Amino acid sequence: MDRIYLDYAATTPTDPAVIEAMRPYFFDKFGNPSSIHFFGQEAKKAMEDARSKVAAFLGAKEEEIVFTSGGTESDNSVLFGTVWAGASKGNHIITTAIEHHAILEPAKFLEKSGYKVTYIKPDQHGIVSPDDIAGAITDKTVLISVMHANNEIGAIQPIKEIGRIARDKGISFHTDAVQTVGHIPVNVDELNVDLLSLSAHKFYGPKGIGCLYVRKGTRIQPYLRGGGQERHRRASTENIPGIVGLGKAIELCAKNMAKESKEQSHLRDKLIKEIPKKIDRVYLNGHPTLRLPNNVNFSVEYIEGESMLLNLDMLGIAASTGSACTSGDLEPSHVLLSIGRPHELCHGSLRITLGRFTKGSEINRFLEVFPKIVSKLRAMSPLYDEKKQ
Amino acid sequence: MNKKVLVGMSGGVDSSVAALLLKDAGYDVVGVTMCFNIASGARNRPSCCGIEGIEDAKKVAHQIGIPHYVLNFGKNLEETVILDFINEYISGRTPNPCVRCNQYLKFGALLKKAKALGCGRVATGHFARVEKNGRAFLLKKGVDSKKDQSYFLCEVEARHLARILFPVGDMTKEEVRDIAQKRGLYVANKQASQEICFIPDNDYRAFLKSRLNKAYFKKGAIVDTKGNVLGHHQGIFNFTLGQREGLGISAPHPLYVIGLSQKYNRVVVGPKEDVFSDSLIAREPNFFVRGSIKKSTLVYAKIRYNHKVAKAKATLLSKGILKVDFAQPQAAITPGQFVVLYKGDTVLCGAKII
Fold first, then answer.
1. Fewer Cβ atoms within 10 Å of its own Cβ: the N or the C terminal residue of chain B?
2. What is the pLDDT of residues B80-105, one digit of tens each?
3. pLDDT tens-place string over residues B338-350
4. From the list B37, B115, B116, which residue is nearest A329 (CB)?
5. Distance (Å, whole) CA A133 – CA B313
6. Which residues, including other chains, have CB under 8 Å from residue A301's CB and lie 6 or more apart?
């Protein structure tokens, strides 16, 4: 059976060129970059080369890049690191109802510890209004965190406008750009952000490596303390092969991103156009145009997303109901709920995310198979029978 | 029917071996672990439903080379089994959630899910057998009499039997463990869990207290059969028939719970001989063998899982009411539990004792 991968937002395959770039750093050049000797210097150079590539992609300075283990660590570092640094100034954080759990869970934890958190709801297309953010600011606000694009429905947020508001008020502004880096242009100055999270495995780099961009002068305490790595901002021996892989992956994206996103958005639009033609009562989740070039998310009425997903899986097609982190718990997606989808439609969602290696023929295969699965499942659904009568 | 079968895998030895045997027999096997959102705060979490069970089932599925999915039935559990559990206790009965789980979840919601996944059949690791007899299917005891679980299947709808497989039903527990060990299954030496999966720390009273409105903690009288008040209780759900401990009464002879009245919020106690009874009434029998009970039909009856079957005569009084008269009086015939009637190894019907 041919396997078709349509879940690039969960993770991407590591590009063979990235693997090649990483290879020497496991054995030949295995040194610890903090070591004084030749082995250390060699590793240190590789790390700084990678840092310069990441900085170039983001339009940042090299010293503003802190390597981390990935998106979750970067997001956690921002929330905890900011409140620790700003403890005397205030105790209020503004974020959104559609953030990744890597933001929402530490935020909830901080609430339990006495901090106040405001969760701004998006509109029906999943877009957060800068005015709503501005309206929530108090003199106690120490951090605003809004994701660049949503991982489930692909809605791209008005980061630049929100960033301007935060800067006017002198409040640190973070964006979780895990879903956008490598897929659309991300420039920290244009976006007016002080802090930004990214993760390599979302753009053909290896898992377990990412970074936090920290604008010079931003008040933040380290999350991991120990050795003095990363200019005392993140202790732990650096993951050199991972860092080299991140550098290579971001370099490849810088080169190919425009072309790839054009190809992917073409296939995305084909799916968005064709699915409603083949299946009745399906609803696109997210914004029709302000969305990631590779994201399609539909709610299919009368059936469960999980059943669609498993049927696709058994035919060799990998998709998702929402975020990979939450599949297995049947709580309806917090993202779909917050854009006002009723419970039933939240359960009937399917996310298809495309990537570098997606072929047109794979999309055709999906379009051929998927309507059959839906009609089979609907034939078993008592709700659908009622509707027909 | 197609050769695609969904195996409910708890992560225990029995269902793991069931999956293995089906795979060996050439079935197209899909492993599924039911997940119930069990509160993770509980200590001593039972191994069948917690994260551990899921991880073990996944490891076994990988070992034997079958796909494995975790499907969440937390809402179903809440709306059927747990709701029934609470309602029974506050009505002065002692529920059997395992019977309800088989009825509503494993051979209800899961069976439906199997259909949606294109699986013609559902298999589990129960020690019981389904046998084809002409056009009908019979539910029979497992071959291992010590492990027989047919009692727990007594409310499964008979029409579903055609779609159910019990691959370990004709083996002994030792044989099952032996296969698991010989084939190197990851869970070969895992111990079975006896607890109710949704009850933290095996403390059902604490669970009920966490779920019930204060109105149910009404203080009430503990009385003898003559109506003399001997003491007080804090809610009838704390008691079950035949219970001796926790009454808080000092009496010259040991006293046992012999009745619970929701209406009067009373616990009735009496001496040991009053715990025994020679007949019972049960409601809405679920028949596996239609027409098998008429008037004074000779059967063997089991009134709780750990009960040794007893000789009895069963009569279908009217549609929906079953009377069972025992040859010898039986201890603690408990409303809320099920009576299961057997002819030899064959389950004739099951019904809830009232």
1. N
2. 999 999 999 988 899 999 999 999 99
3. 999 999 999 999 9
4. B37
5. 75
6. A281, A282, A283, A344, A345, A348
Closest Cα of chain B to A114: distance in Å?
Answer: 22
CA distance B248 to B251: 10
Q: Does A330 touch chain B (CB under 8 A)?
A: yes
Q: Does domain A4-11+257-388 have CATH number 3.90.1150.10?
A: yes
Q: Predicted ipTM?
A: 0.76
Is B101 one of the annotated active-site residues of the chain? yes
The per-residue pLDDT for B196 is 83
Which is the catalytic residue, given B101, B119, B154, B349?
Answer: B101
pLDDT at A325: 47
Least confident of A53-62, B142-151, B172-181, B231-240: B231-240
Query: Do A330 and B72 lie within an 8 Å CB cutoff?
Result: yes
Domains assigned to chain B: 4-202 (3.40.50.620), 213-270 (2.30.30.280), 276-353 (2.40.30.10)
Whether A382 and chain B come into contact, CB under 8 Å, resolves to no
Going across the sheet that includes B68-72, the strands are B68-72, B28-35, B4-8, B121-123, B164-165
pTM: 0.84
* Best CATH choice for the domain A16-252 from the list 3.40.640.10, 2.40.50.140, 3.40.630.120, 3.40.50.720: 3.40.640.10
Structure tokens at A251: 């370099």
Residue among B30, B35, B116 whose CB faces A307 most closely: B116
